[in-house]
Amino acid sequence: MDIINWQWTLIIVSSLLLFLLSPLAKTTDEFFKAVHKKKAPNSLVLTGSLIISWIFAKSITNAANLGLDFGIVGGVAYAGYYVSFAVAGLLIYKMRVVGGFKSIHQFLTTKFGKGAMALFSILIAIRLFNEVWSNTMVIGSYFGETGSSNYYWAIIVFTILTLAYAIKGGLSSSIFTDVIQMVLFGILLMVILWNIFSIETFSVTDVVTSGTWSFELGLNLFFAAIIQSFSYPFHDPVLTDRAFISSPKVTRKSFLWASLLGAICIILFSVIGVYAQTQGFKGQAAVEVGKAFGVVILLVINFIMITSAASTLDSTFSSFSKLLAIDLGMVNDLTFGRASMAAIAILGTLPVFLEAEILSATTISGTMVIGLTPIFLFWNIKVPKISFYLSVITGLVFGFTLVFNVFPEALIFTEGKYADLLWVNIWGILSCNILYFIPKWLKSNK
């Protein structure tokens, strides 16, 4: 039985098992709020769900590749994004306890009006749309060359199977399967690391001494990730939806643990790339290491990709249906919720066939939303409604300067890869914060 057949077996069997085990949502609370037997998820379940829904196929591929490029510094740099959980956990705790808000959309509508909420909803809908194809394309790449029939079939089958169990239980399914996927991820990661460290020529010392702690070799990305962590979590409904389903204290505890444990998972996964670097491998680090260790380890790596992509995909489907049904108040019923999941699955898969240039699922969209920083960081400070638009639009403008590579080089003060990313974010954050407060200063000085 060749490797491709084994991979098909993994996808089909694991998805069918998740479908059979998933709870069937019979009420809107079960479907949209993950209430099970009238109870919200506890801190252990919520922590596991947060971590695995963020360790998506794209991110662990990036972590391994950054380990290959920059050594352990690359893994630590990428793990910087996990500060997002701590930021979101602490700020949303305050918004719920002090402000009494029950969702991000309620907060935005109350403070900045319906127009602001609509603009925000467009941003997160684009985010969810990107999330679908950026994860399924990683799965497709394990089955064949981009554009081959195997590649396309893997994407279609994987998306349909994940959609099936997501439609069955909504957010309840998503959180329930997340726990299984988190346990699987942990076991599979340990298997890979055990095999890597059992080689005599590779040790923990090699990992610790790999890479150089300089801006050129990874720290540009690290600081950019830290800066983005103050806005990034708020444009990701997969994360924020989970911040309102359990009690404030359980939520805060879960988010803080997820910040620490998620970062550790990413750093450990980047060790695969560090190993690839010591062996002089080129290309996709995870794939090359898998091939070097033979069929079993390649399948284990493959299975990690499948579980992590599935957990992100089902979360994306449930967040999109909640966005339309609850947050935008379209139709609060199960049929509409399930239909909207199918819609985002189809729309999100279309770019795969259009051969759209893959925009990085994290860094670029992360820059475009830096305008959200003052809105959430200073959520309790009264400002005119125009402040929201000034900050968000400024963030988008800085994001586009990065995409089109038109940011002035005179304003970049470090060298190497990701230097432009870092400095666009530094200047962008400063500009967004200043423009956010200018209307307030003008008003108070009248």
Automatic annotation (TrEMBL):
PROSITE patterns: NA_SOLUT_SYMP_3. GO terms for cellular component: membrane. It comes from the Bacteria. It is a multi-pass membrane protein. GO terms for molecular function: transmembrane transporter activity. The chain crosses the membrane at residues 6-24, 44-64, 70-92, 112-130, 150-167, 179-197, 217-234, 255-276, 292-313, 334-353, 359-379, 386-407, 419-438. The keyword Membrane applies. Keywords: Membrane, Transmembrane, Transmembrane helix. InterPro entries: Na/Glc_symporter_sf, Na/solute_symporter. It is found in: Membrane. Belongs to the sodium:solute symporter (SSF) (TC 2.A.21) family. This is Na+/proline symporter.
